[in-house]
Amino acid sequence: MKHPDDDNELFNRLEAEMSTDSGGHVVDLDKARAARGESPDSHLDGSGDRSADSKATGSGDPSPDSSADSETVAVDMAVSTQSGPGLLDRVKNSKRLDVIPGWMKSGTEFKDAMRWLGGHVWHTFAFHAVRVPFLYLPKLVVRSPRGLFNTLGKVGRWSVDAEGEPLRQAEARRENSELYLKLSRQRDRRVRLRMVLTILGALAALVGLLYLVYGAGLMTQVIAVALAVLGFGYAGAPADAPLSTRAVIKTEVQKLTGDMVVKAMASIGIGQIASAVAKGGDGIKFVAPITREGPGWRADIDLPLGVTVADVADRRPRLASGLRRPLGCVWVDADPNEHEGRMVLWVGDRDLSKTEKVTWPLAKGGSHDIFKPIPFGMDPRGRAQAMPVIQHNMLFGSLPGQGKTSSVRVILSGAALDPTVELWPHELKGTGDADSFEPLSHRFVSGIDDESIKYAADSMKLLREEVMRRAAAMKKLPRDLCPDKRVTRQIADKRSLKLWPLMAVFDECQNLFAHAKYGKQAGEDAEFVIKVGRALGVVLVLATQRPDKDSLPTGISGNVSIRFCLKVAGQIENDMILGTSAYKNGVRATAFRPEIDAGIGYLAGATTLPVVVRTAYLDTPATEKIAQRALAARKAAGTLSGHALGEEAESAKGPSYDLLADVAAVVPTTEERVWNERIAARLAELRPEVYGGWKGENVTSALKPHGIKTTGVAGMTDDGDRTTRRGIVRADLTKTIAERDGTSGAA
User: Fold this and answer.
1) 526 close to 559: Cβ distance less than 8 angstroms
2) How far apart are CA 509 and CA 541, in angstroms?
3) Are 378 and 614 in contact (CB under 8 A)?
4) Kind and range of the H or E element at 729?
5) In 364-501, where do the E strands start and end?
6) Are 331 and 278 in contact (CB under 8 A)?
7) CA–CA gap between residue 601 and residue 383 (Å, rounded)
């Protein structure tokens, strides 16, 4: 067995050889061992055997590749590897900056900028025009004598070269006679020339004065005196008292710099950022220069490895403190086109809550197409944000007094301006916030009493029936008219199909869903409408100030596609409105300030990523004007119906059929288990006016409230293939019917 000291001796020899060559080289260990009579692989174990691969060949000799004649290869030798992308590929993959700024390409932003510029110029002109006769001219007259003496004094000092006297006296005190004499001779030359010019100027002034007194006309004399008074008055202005005042006091906002951002980021308490910055590494990498964007500064930043935008958003108050800016000025967003560590930091000039109220574009005129997004508000950067409606359902939530109802009013106003939309407003707190829309609504209620709650519950039942009717109608449409099986503008305009858009609004919906008598059924109906009615032109808008599992069933909150959350109290309420894990991902409506940030919330589902939006503000007079325009448009189009025409409210009397009995009728006793899709087909044959268009999932949703659960059922398809699909057990059906009717299970 080779002693371990042999390897030590070998390495000592190698070290000695390397030390004799200043350039350094790499020695082949196999050659060195071969020179000592050792097996090249004897260092691998305690024997002279070869490796497992050598044993497999049955040979203990070194392979040709490791023979003494093989070429020595340096471990640091450059190895040919696959190169990265070429220059052309890098250029193709690079991101091009806009040639024209975004605000110039956006019609709305360009108009806003020009409107501001015109207003600024007009304000400045009017400000000074008012002050010219009453302030500026009297100042000039009063200051003109002082200006005359100042002018004569400056001319006299210039003529005798008084400005060079301090330098000449300084050289005299230093007893530098040579330089003093040079300066004196220079002064004499200057004074001779300047005195000549001064005398000539004085003579010219005297001649001009005599001419104005004895030879000029009255108008010339007036103009000359006015110019003299104005000129000498301007020259007599003290340095600390300028003639005019500022028309606009500029609010100085410190420019955002890279150093400010780095220091602020290092102070927010994220270890990876702090350590990277402390070591001088690339803790914070700016992928683009810090630029102006809207009324603020934008910085595109790559965060350190392992840090996400949500981590920074969680510490937004600390970041605002580090930047020495109000919380409402500092906003952190992710870039949806980049990786999770790309952060867009935007620092505004003013707190978002202190900016001007957002004007709704349709407030003063125009109509709207419900198949296009409704203008909703502005984000902190001043970009317009809109909310899509068709194929969506909406959920609004906040604490009381944070602008929830006002936000819903914007959406309701946009829908009202499309005369094809059927409106069902339900205002369940009884304050009359939606009364402006009553004259043009198909169904309408405002109140918190049991009768109003029952009316809203009936509306939910009617919505469910309407969804089922629309599903059957959509199924019968030809494929060329409805290829995607969803309501389009073309389909909505065909009034004979009765598939126009329908928007049902339930403000303070917790009063409905938490009601002891009507709440459970209303929740089940709302869940059904949300899941099925989306593609059928039925839009459900819910607003609540108490988002919990009792007042907002999870089946509803979990299936709504667009959410707007203003200030809420805690994490549970935040995630009930914005969706599970929203708080964990940094989307936190809890950070908004009560009352200060009223009307500001997180909008999720309308854009790729959640965005902070300040909603447009519509007060009651503005809403009434919009409603009057909408009413006139509906009268002209002939689309008024229901409550708007004074018709008696349609009540949801409930189905005139027994679902459980119908299912039992189409499932014979010989079938212990049956697929839901087959039940749907049989029900459609039994009552086509009720079950037409039903599918297996409709059967599942309809039986769920009765406690009948679906399970995997094995069966044979019409093609003879054996498979497993969702279905029910007939015994569960008969048991449910027996419990309901109070009969024995054998029935």
Assistant:
1) no
2) 10
3) yes
4) strand 722-729
5) 374-378, 384-387, 394-397, 422-427, 445-446
6) no
7) 15
Considering only CA atoms, which of 413, 408, 357, 377 is closest in space to residue 626? 413
pLDDT tens column, 404-452: 999 999 999 999 999 999 999 999 998 888 999 999 999 999 999 999 9
Phi, psi of 9 (to 5 degrees): -65, -40
Instruction: Note the pLDDT tens digit of each residue in 190-216.
Output: 888 888 898 998 899 888 888 888 888
Secondary structure of 364-376 as H, E, C letters: CCCCCCCCCCEEE
Beta bridge partners of 426: 445, 506
Cβ distance 498 to 560 under 8 Å?
no
* Whether the predicted model's global pTM rises above the 0.85 cut: no
The DSSP line for 638-704 is T---GGGGTPPPP-----SS-HHHHHHHHS-TT-SEEEHHHHHHHHHHH-HHHHTT--HHHHHHHHG
Element (H, E) at 594: none
Residues 490-508: pLDDT tens digits?
999 888 888 999 999 999 9
Locus of tokens 């919330």: 601
Tell me the sheet residues that pair with 374: 387
523: left (phi over 0), alpha (psi -120 to 50) or beta: alpha
Instruction: Return d(Cα 529, Cα 652) in angstroms, integer.
Output: 15
What token pair was written down for 179?
A: 């330089």
Residue with structure tokens 């991902």? 585
**Could you give the CA distance from residue 715 to residue 676 in angstroms, rounded to a whole number?**
12
CA distance 369 to 201: 78
| Separation CA 591–CA 567 (nearest Å) | 7
